[in-house]
TrEMBL record:
Gene3D superfamilies: Lumazine/riboflavin synthase. This is 6,7-dimethyl-8-ribityllumazine synthase. Catalyzes the formation of 6,7-dimethyl-8-ribityllumazine by condensation of 5-amino-6-(D-ribitylamino)uracil with 3,4-dihydroxy-2-butanone 4-phosphate. This is the penultimate step in the biosynthesis of riboflavin. GO terms for biological process: riboflavin biosynthetic process. Keywords: Riboflavin biosynthesis, Transferase.
Length: 210
């Protein structure tokens, strides 16, 4: 019998005018790699251009909220064309940025087609959506609970504060086997693919809701 669990039938959205960032932790690298690959696959399948997918890494999941926040706040548009550019290369514009600057929507289809507004594109044109990926595996101490709690709340805060969708790609699993299964490493479904689709759907709907 088919499972009731899951995101329902996949909606098709055109991601061809979106810019998406993936920020991932390095802890549990093998599982992370499979999840990032899944997210990239579904972004590309949804039409997101390869040059509009920016990937960055941080040591562990606990660093994700800060990295996502800085990524959204400080990365100049020029740097985003370098998919491997380090966060540290981003000019720190935070001190001079107003909230209005930070929440300026990414270029719309109209502006990309050369409307008069395109010449006024903001310096820090942000991302349509960002996917935060981490894998927390429960150990013997309370580390797991603290990191899971802090990271979840941090990611929610960033997306609401900045008005940019942050897709929750944080696996909180009880053992390595559960992580491998959810990353599709046993040949089953890779949750990273769902996250890529969620980023495209939210990126598109965000333009409509603006
Ligand atoms: C310290 C730690 C532990 C015990 N476990 C994980 C984990 O399973 N997954 C993960 O992404 N990160 C883990 N970390 C590292 C923390 O997230 C963080 O990088 C460090 O505490 C440094 O701030």
């Amino acid at each position: 019998m088919a499972s009731l669990k899951g995101p329902g039938e996949a909606q098709i959205h055109d991601g061809s005018n979106l810019r998406i960032a993936i920020v991932h932790a390095r802890w549990n690298t093998e599982i992370i790699s499979a999840l990032v690959a899944g997210a990239r696959r579904s972004l590309l399948a949804s039409g997101v251009k390869v040059e509009n997918i920016v990937v960055e890494d941080v040591p562990g999941s606990y660093e994700l909220p800060f990295a996502v926040q800085r990524f959204l706040m400080t990365l100049p548009i020029e740097s985003s064309s370098n998919p491997t550019g380090p966060i540290s290369a981003a000019t720190d514009l935070l001190s001079s940025a107003s909230l209005a600057d930070l929440t300026t929507p990414e270029p719309t289809a109209a502006s990309q087609q050369g409307s008069s507004k395109s010449s006024e594109a903001p310096l820090k044109a942000s991302f349509s959506a960002i996917i935060a990926i981490g894998v927390l595996i429960k150990g013997e101490t309370m580390h797991f609970e603290y990191i899971a709690d802090a990271t979840s709340h941090g990611l929610m805060k960033v997306q609401l504060d900045l008005g940019v969708p942050v897709v929750f790609g944080l696996l909180t699993v009880l053992n390595e086997e559960q992580g491998r299964a959810r990353a599709g490493m046993d040949g089953k479904h890779c949750h990273g693919e769902d996250w890529g689709r969620a980023a495209v759907e939210l990126g598109v709907k965000r333009q409509v809701w603006a």
